[in-house]
Write a structure and sequence with these properties.
By secondary structure, the chain is mostly helical. About 45% of the residues lie in helices and about 0% in strands. It has a domain at about 25-90. The chain has helices at about 10-15, 30-40, 45-50, 55-65, 70-75. The longest helix is centred in the C-terminal third of the chain and has 12 residues, at about 55-65. The protein is globular and about 30 Å long. Bound molecules: iron/sulfur cluster. Iron/sulfur cluster binds near residues 67 and 85. Iron/sulfur cluster binds next to helix 4.
Length: about 90
């Protein structure tokens, strides 16, 4: 059923699930903010831009960082060529 499909990556990282992630208010959800502040505070600006603006680049950067546990090096070394973002991932 189309309405029940959930982002697998989001389900792994956010116990509240994807619906709690982007409230559409333009601000970063507290659960996401707390995670970034504890793991890699220098990456917080990237996520704030992704949530605050409609920038696709910022969204891709944030998605890849989230996918790889906030590690730029891991994004750079990503080998998942089946991912639709692989060709446009940052930090190459
Ligand atoms: S390109 Fe790699 S790092 Fe970016 S979302 Fe896809 S799998 Fe994750």
């Amino acid at each position: 059923m189309k309405g029940s499909i959930q982002c697998k990556k989001a389900a792994k990282t956010d116990p509240e699930g994807p619906t709690a992630r982007n409230t559409g208010t333009g601000s970063i959800p507290q659960a996401v903010k707390s995670w970034i502040e504890s793991e890699a505070p220098s990456q917080l600006g990237i996520f704030e831009r992704a949530y605050r603006t409609r920038s696709r680049v910022a969204a891709i950067n944030a998605m890849c960082l989230e996918c790889m546990g906030l590690s730029r090096q891991e994004v750079r070394d990503c080998t998942d060529r089946s991912c639709p973002l692989w060709n446009v991932r940052p930090y190459k």
